Structure formats: structure tokens, C-alpha cells
Amino acid sequence: MLRLFFYAMISNSFSASAAEVNITASFKSDISQPGLNQFINTTPLGGFCIRHPNYCRNGVFGVGVNGISVNKHYVKESSDLKNNHYYYTIDGRNREVILTNLKTGVKTNVNFRINIFSVRTKGLKSPYAFVPSGGCSYLGGSAAGDESTLIWRVNPGIQDCYSRLRSYDELTNGGDVTIFELSFGYVLETPNPLLLPSGDYEGELIYTLGNGKDIDYHALAYNDDEVKIKFNVSVEHAFFYQFPNGSENVQLAPTNGWGAWINGGQVPDMLKKEVPFTLSTSSGFKVWMQCEHNVGSGCGLKNQASAETLPLDVKITIPGFISNQQPVRNLLLNTDTLGHTIDMPGRFVVDLHSKLNFSVNKPEVEKMVKAPGSNWKGGVTLIFDSEVE
After folding, report:
1. CA-CA distance, 111 to 362, in Å (whole number)?
2. What residues have CB less than 8 Å from 196, skipping those under 6 apart?
3. CATH 2.60.40-classified regions of the chain
């Protein structure tokens, strides 16, 4: 599982609805970088990453949304640590989030955990950052006037994190303190994107806010009762194939040429032609045909003189790939638009040598040779669809 470390930020403006955090990530495969198999965070920078960029390096990000303002009464002399001092209970457990592909309904799971907690306060003047006890450890902080910022690391699990007010901390509004700009860092464990079909995946996770809830300030009043985290993850696969020049014109012939027929009248067992191509892909796909002349579920060749049509077999071989639990080796193609589903490789395949085999079998060859000098033609369009549902 890939681990992504981000920060999220909730601003101090009031909102009639639940505070929301939008987290986005994307994967776009690149043939020039086949080893790239990780989601990239695409969440715009915001929050205290803007205010304190020194805490947001090496892939750490912050986002800001309309959010939380909480009122609490602080008393330096109080023995009630939970209700009158810096005291927060934070749900730092792993949570599973189901993401759903908006087009296909395919689902995947990610794991999310809050591992950093931060707030700003107004109404308390302190010359030093607060160092926590309990289930948190100090990461950073700042103070200016009667505003201060704390940034604490959160251990896994439901944690009580606290710091007692000190004698030199000055309460500037009789002990009434506003706590705003809830921020949190998190760990997001995502699946291998090479195992996911292309598309946009969405999901959400809700943390309740309030006394006795997932995020608990042990405060007097909250302006909201939940934080909604919305996830949008996009997957875009690469798919590329290349045929040699001249492959658009395929001439069928016996394996050893026409000599046996010309010299002795021996009917060839088969007329065939192999056409190589290279395939580069990070995804599965479907493949089917469209025919100039349809014969059954396949394509055909038409006698240009008599309009008689005979079946043409088109088979595909892609080493290492699977379709319907079988290797893709001489897989007979058809015109069914549902196509043959070629399973996702689970890795980035680049310039894989593959091939198409066009052939006419002996019973049809016997009919052909009964019309000496005849000319048989037919067009085949091969369709690769990498948008597999």
C-alpha cells in the first residue's frame, strides 16, 4: 500500500453546513516513466501551509475550507485540566473509506488516519509554544499578540492530548478563548493505481465534532458538529500500440508458398499472414472487430468476381496477458461489441511484442482454388477500448 502524507486545513469562518475538506489525488500513467505507479496529491495548498510554509515541505500539503470556531473558558489556577486548559481528544484511528468510480461503479478502499492536529487560539498571550502530554507530541507552534498556533503529532488510536496553562500565560479576555483554524495532517493509504480501471473515484468520511465526539475540544460551544472529508481520486491509464509500416495491407499465402499447388495441384492446408505489433499499456482493455464483410460473428473475404464470401479467422496473441482466465494466445476475435476483456496487467507494460494472425482454413481454401485467378478481399478494423468497465 502507498502512503501519502498530507495536511488539511479548516478555516475560522462560520458555515451553516458541515465543514468540508476536499482532498484530491491523481494517477496518470506515462509510457516514458513506466516505473511511476503512485498517486500524486493535487490538493491546492492552503491553511497553515500558507501561514507556516516551513512545516509543509517534502510533499506535505494544506487545504482551507469554511469551518470551525469553538469557545472555551480557560482558568490557569483550575485543577480541571480537561475543561479549563489546553485539552483535546482526537480520533487517530485508521478508518476505511470506500471510493466509487463515478462511471462504472467499481469500488476501491483507501485507509485514512489523522496523525497531526493543529489549532489557533485568540484570547491567550503566551511567549512559548505549548508542548503536549498524553497521546501527542510536539511538532511546531507560534505566538503573536494574543493569538497562538499549536501543531501536535497524534499517535494511533483515540488520544487525549493536553497542556496545562502556565503562570506567565496571559488571558486577555477574562479567560474566554476562541479556538479556530482546526488543522490536521493525515496518512492516506491508497491501492496500486495500476490495479484500478480509469475514471474518477469519489467517497467521503465524516468526523463528528463536539464533547464526547471524534474531535473533542472539551469546550462550551461549537459552531458546527461535524467535519466532512470529501475524496476525489482520478486514474488515467496509458494505452498505445504500433504496427509496422505496410501492415494495413495483408496478403495471405501458404506457409511454403504456392509451389505445391502450382506444380502438383496440392491444396494448401491454410492461407495465413502474421502481423506483429508492439503494445504499451498500464490498463486492461477490450478488443473486437468491425468487418467490411461479416460472416457469422467474424469477418470474411469476398470474391470480387462472384460475390461469394468465405470466413477469415483473426487471432491475437499478447504474451503474459489473460482473458477469461486463459492466456491471450491465438485468441479468436469476433464482432461482438462487448469484446474480449483483456485483464489489467497490474504493471506497466512497454513495447510488448504481440501479433495478429489472419488465416483461411483448408475447407475455404478448397473453395477458393476452384475459381482460378479469383481475387478475394475484405477489410478488418480492429478496435481496442481501454475504457474497461
Report:
1. 58
2. 27, 101, 106, 108, 235
3. 239-385
CATH architecture observed for domain 239-385? Sandwich (2.60)
Quote the DSSP letter at residue 128: S
| Dihedral angle sign, alpha carbons of residues 118, 148, 130, 142 | positive
Q: Which helix (H) or strand (E) holds 295?
A: strand 294-295
Q: Read off the pTM.
A: 0.78
Do the beta carbons of residue 103 and residue 196 sit within 8 Å?
no
Instruction: Reply yes or no on whether the pLDDT at 146 is more than 60.
Output: yes
pLDDT digits (tens, 9 = 90+) for 96-129: 999 999 988 999 999 999 888 989 899 999 888 8
Rounded CA Rg of the chain: 33
What is each CA distance from 309 to 14, 288, 296, 304, 314, in whole angstroms? 74, 20, 11, 9, 16
- Residues in CB range of 262: below 8 A, 6 or more apart: none
Tell how far CA 336 is from the center of its chain.
Answer: 30
